[in-house]
Design a protein that fits this description.
With 215 residues, the chain is mostly helical. The protein has 10 helices and 3 strands, in the order H-H-H-H-H-H-H-H-E-E-E-H-H.
Length: 215
């Protein structure tokens, strides 16, 4: 796939922020405590993280890393604590204030897509909310994840030994037993999120899902 830059990415990210805002406007108070697909966080925590990320500049990120001793988990926890209000409606209002923000840590532009799609599903999946994403844009996020080590938040190792084929866009990666499925399901799988066996087909599907669940 061709490289993608911020000029193409920001409209997508801004659209995803708006869609998430609308999806969460009518959420019942107790639903905010639903465990998300991001381990250790509920849906309110994930929302706070998205707001924190939307406010983080390149220079600010460097300063934060220094303060956190280059511990990403510690920095993320601090960011969530800062942006998570006692009333989730106030946190949602904070999301509304950063819908068009273009601040970003010093990272590949595709990381903004990964965050928008994966964290969007971290929230929507457990709540039973559906969202139709652009398969082509999700493919850009998947391509980045497949080049990035799990230690750095990617999914390179999870895909090793498999040929991943998207059933809804022109995307394939790797070699080995074929695993076919919607590009969003492939992205979630290599990003360590829950996936269903029925989402995939091909001779490698059953073993691929089993491997993910055993890790």
């Amino acid at each position: 796939m061709s490289k993608i830059g911020f000029a193409e990415i920001w409209p997508v990210v801004h659209g995803e922020r708006r869609a998430l805002l609308e999806d969460l406007r009518g959420l019942e108070p107790e639903a905010w405590h639903t465990p998300s697909w991001c381990p250790g966080w509920d849906v309110h925590d994930v929302l706070a993280h998205l707001i924190d990320s939307a406010k983080t500049t390149r220079l600010g990120f460097i300063r934060r890393m220094l303060a956190a001793g280059f511990d990403f988990d510690r920095d993320n926890a601090r960011g969530v604590a800062q942006e998570k209000m006692n009333d989730p409606k106030l946190t949602l209002a904070s999301l509304a204030s950063v819908l068009d923000a273009t601040a970003t840590p010093p990272a590949n532009p595709a990381t903004r897509l990964v965050e928008a799609f994966v964290h969007g599903e971290d929230i929507r999946g457990p709540l039973g909310l559906a969202r139709s994403y652009s398969a082509g844009q999700v493919a850009h996020a998947l391509e980045y994840q497949l080049k990035t080590s799990v230690k750095m938040g990617g999914g390179k190792e999870k895909a090793t030994g498999w040929r991943l084929v998207a059933s809804d866009t022109n995307f394939n990666h790797g070699s080995g037993p074929e695993v076919a499925g919607p590009v969003l399901s492939l992205l979630l799988a290599v990003s360590g999120r829950p996936v269903a066996r029925e989402d995939f087909s091909g001779p490698g599907a059953a073993d691929f899902v089993a491997q993910l669940r055993n890790r």
